[in-house]
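thought: fold this chain, then report.
action: predict
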Amino acid sequence: MYGDSSSAGGACAGGRRDGGDMGRHSEVVNPDHYCGTVECIDAIRAALGPDKFISYCQGQVLKYIWRAGKKGDDNWLTDLQKAEFYLDMMLGKDPRSE
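observation:
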């Protein structure tokens, strides 16, 4: 769940490590620039622990909702999808493993 590092989904190039297609806005869930052996969000979760990680995610949800639509064009949708990603993480559902 929150502090469980085994829930890391970590995929690269818009796909899952098992070769399957992630489908749901992969540029939000697993952007190419976050690929590596340990993803940043997993390191943050491990460093903060479950309670502080939830607070971190709350801050991210607020940030992305706050700035949605302020960058022009269709970026509002991407920001709302990023907020949804962090909301899912707060609820213990790692979108990277879907």
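thought: worth noting. The CA atoms of residues 85 and 95 lie 7 Å apart.
final: tokens above.
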